[in-house]
Fold each of these.
Amino acid sequence: MFIYVPFELPFFALNPELNVVAPCRAWDITGREEAIEYAKKHNVPVPVTKKSIYSRDGNLWHLSHEDFQFRSTGRSCHQLYCSLSSTKLVEDMGVGRVDMVGMKSREMYDTPGGTILFNAVRELESLTLDREMMQVKDSLAIKYAELVYAGRWFNPLRESMDAFMEKTTETTTGSVTVKLYKGSVTVTSRKSPDRLYS
């Protein structure tokens, strides 16, 4: 099992006596092709082949695709996870799809549920939070993401930021109607019983 450092830190925070085995550090496997060969030789099922070598990491919120030689940008490489609206509707509209080219790889992300929720919550916050609160919340969100990405979930700073976020969202209630069209999310109406202004 390949262990990524952000997973190790929470493991050790919960139990410092754990012994993490990280084959990617100990074995002489230098690339994906070799990893696939090893899996094949030892009858380990993997969802990739040398011909279709890109990796997918997914959950109910998000799905990412990564490969240096990613050539397909069509629907064949997108597997959508969305419990907020019809998957067919989201697939047809292409909501939450991002294509990024970095220094090491090309990555494609499908985050339809997250995109819809983010836009809806943002609209409610514009009714219920003042400008200064929004600015502080936005700056802390970046730091929060950095901590989580680095595996520092069990960190007092993250817990303190949770308390701040819970306080700021006490009044973030209401309803938002959105329109999905060709990859975009447009808010068509919003209302909240806790809005700051009449």
Amino acid sequence: MKKVIIITNPTAGHHSRSRISRFVRHLEQAGPRATIARTQYPGHATILARDAAASGLYSHIIAAGGDGTIAEVAAGMIGTSAILGILPLGSANVLAHELKIPFNEIRNAALIQAGHFTTIWPGYLHTKAGRQLFVQMASIGFDAHIVHGTSTRLKAWVGRAAYAVSTLSSLFRFELTEFTVLIDDIPHRATTVIVSKGSLYAGKYELTHHSAHGDRNFSVILFETSGKLALVRTILSLFLGRIGQQKGTRTLTASTVRIPSPAAIPIQSDGDRKGFSPVHLDISASPLHVATGPTPPPAG
């Protein structure tokens, strides 16, 4: 194993210098030297990861933070031979739950040392702001409005509970708008769309029965509900693990999703705000290698 670099986001919801220090200590007991690089602004993790991958000095580039930090690090190293390591320090840590990555620093360090990895196929968002990679999921509509309205300070303080506060606020403030969704160029109508690579949502809640991380496609969940009461029932069904049984939702498989609407519908990916529609989503042409256990995690 070559050296490893740990890219950490000091503003992540549960950033912890002590956890990072323990992780480094156990990692270096097996030999590999670890360099720590701290992000200073949005997008900095991508630059740090790109430079680290280009140097050829590191076998692993480790993202220490939440899903947003992981996506930024992945964007800088995708398509290279470097392996993405994950030390979960965020509020939801959905990808870590999805890929069964240990939260314990000692077991996580042992996983990195073993050198095993799983190959996944992330997605890209294409908006007016440009192309942005996401590793777990993106959404357009009510779900994204919740993310747009979530206070970063409150999220750092109370973690996932901040999303509950924003959900209640969004139920009163957000106006549901029906729009056209082109799924593999076939038109559908919806008020919210979740485009997911994984099977989980907001941590450990089941969104679909199948993870598409190893596939070159998405799971696309269409919310066709138009009233606030129906929307509340749909949200509750999601957190009760019954979204697949809920009337007014459909799950499809696709390799491209396009929402041409110019109506400024909010977008989020991996828990971060990503502007407004129109938007086009597709699968990365290059895979990403992620440090996991010796065998891939079971789908769903």
Amino acid sequence: MQQSSKPKTRRKYDRTGGPADFKSEIVKMLVSGQTAAYVSKALGVSENLIYRWKNQNQGVKKANGEQNELSLENQQLKD
């Protein structure tokens, strides 16, 4: 058996609106109640990657929330 000499390439998940849109759509699917296993099989994306995107999305939301709190506090201190 002969192995391919081609290096393994990484898949890029850039659907119509770009990779960020594709990732956010997957996270929305999870939030709406679909399982990571179902989304994984339906879209051909590994479950681990789906969970990573979900965690990254939650981290962004948390960071934005903290930033908003800091901005509000700074504004209150200025007044």
